Amino acid sequence: MEDTVQNAETREFRLIVCDPLSLQILTLAIDRGIRLPREFIPAYARTAAMLTDVLAQRFGLDTIHLATMLPEDGRSHCAVFEVIGGLKAAGRRLSFQSVEDLSSEEISDHERALFWKITRGDAKELGRFARLGWINELFAKLGYRFDRPSVRQFNQGVNFCLLSFTDARGATKWFKAVGEPNIREYGLTKEFASRFPLYLPSIEVFIPEWNGWVSKGVEGTPLNDSQDLQSCEQALLALATMQKEMTGDTAVLYALGAKDWTSVRILSLLEQFFIDAETAMKAQTSTLSKPLTYEELIKLHADIESALIDFTNLGIPDTLLHGDIGHGNVIASPDGPVFLDWAETYVGHPFLSAEHLLADLSRSNRTFSQNQAILRLGYSEHWKAYTTPRELERSVAMAPAIAAFFYGVLCWNANRDRPDPTRAWPLLRSMLRRSKYELETVSGVAA
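The structure corresponding to this sequence follows.
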């Protein structure tokens, strides 16, 4: 079946698949001529990964996603791909024709012109990777030459790319390049790879003109797929080691683009956050849990404010935070933990990253959940030189509540200027209920 049934949660893509030698594109025959292949994919799927898989499965073509043109005049999205490794047997079974042979109903004049700009390498508005042959340039920079490279592309955007490939010896390598709004990840990754080589993937080469780098693949298991308590302890030790080294160098982090998520910053956002939180609670339709009342929100606001001030004054310095530490971004390798994806790097209280990692792991399996308190105490031991035993105990007790609240603030802040900020409301409500519960277990903060 050529096309998937469309629904509200899918997007249609017309696929322009270009042979770089002939500059002809893949077409399908219909009664009234030819058309582009089409595919419906989930609205929030990674376009490059899903559509390159589709092209491999349906047509036997290895491709690289170059660009996606913005839809116009009610048309579907139009994604452009380059065939890599040659057409070979697959090409003899398929029809490739000039883009000029397509009707204006199938492709607009603007899209047609933009396609030709991509073939000439002139589509600057679509980024540095919206051009034929850039993948060969990457391999040339590395001294590689493949007749049929084994490439798996995961993401693609304006000046952004993430893919893996296998070199001639069968070793897996990763290429990542970043653009706005995550261009800071290049400098941060370069800094951390130099400072903490044991805890980041081994970088083979940095490509400054692309804000990119190539790293060796990491052998191991995502920590949230692991059952090994010792691996979690090692990850928390590594996290604390990096954080302690950066306590005196937060200026470096800020200079490289790390975001300010100190308690002072969070405190400055409380008033607007709780205004929006009240609206979110009033909008709740689910009956699985009760929304917090206005009075409960007023009290929670005061308790959170008091807790943040207390948390700040207990002696633990602000330092490095990994803002996306869950979701498989910590790998338990035979040589120890490896931390991936530093796009969301923050400056704030170190316990926040530890709590977010523990929360993510506790959701993944019972072993981590049952040992969460022990793991939390073990992590806190790495900070005993910075404060008194009593203040450290207080910090440990308060950390779950502050971390849950912080997670809600992060989600709220990321969505409040987007077209539909209400998408964050279910998580916001959940984190507020969690924060309230955790605060009520801390003596002296709430009843």
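The first strand starts at residue 10 and ends at 18.
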